[in-house]
């Protein structure tokens, strides 16, 4: 007779069903957040279109500033720096150092 591990003994059909339901809800919340984040970011793009050159840019924004502005309007939005960066690059934004400043702070260029 095989010895069952403590984990196998504790796993009942009810516990398994509960864990599966928790995982389903987690995935559903994640999908809803991704959809919501896409809507919010698309609204940002409409209001601040990407600038392709420094001369064309009227605004220079950090990722933190963009995320903070989004959270002020949509407090439940969950957007991290990486997601924002990938999205902005995909839709044509570029980042550059601030004009006439000699530091390593790069910012996203917008019109």
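-> sequence recovered:
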């Amino acid at each position: 007779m095989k010895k069952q591990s403590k984990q196998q003994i504790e796993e009942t059909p009810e516990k398994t069903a509960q864990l599966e339901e928790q995982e389903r809800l987690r995935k559903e919340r994640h999908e809803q957040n991704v959809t919501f984040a896409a809507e919010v970011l698309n609204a940002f793009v409409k209001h601040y279109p990407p600038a392709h050159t420094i001369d064309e840019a009227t605004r220079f924004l950090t990722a933190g500033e963009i995320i903070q502005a989004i959270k002020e309007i949509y407090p439940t939005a969950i957007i991290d720096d990486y997601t924002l960066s990938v999205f902005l690059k995909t839709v044509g934004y570029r980042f550059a150092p601030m004009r006439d400043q000699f530091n390593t702070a790069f910012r996203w260029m917008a019109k």
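The chain has one domain: 12-110.
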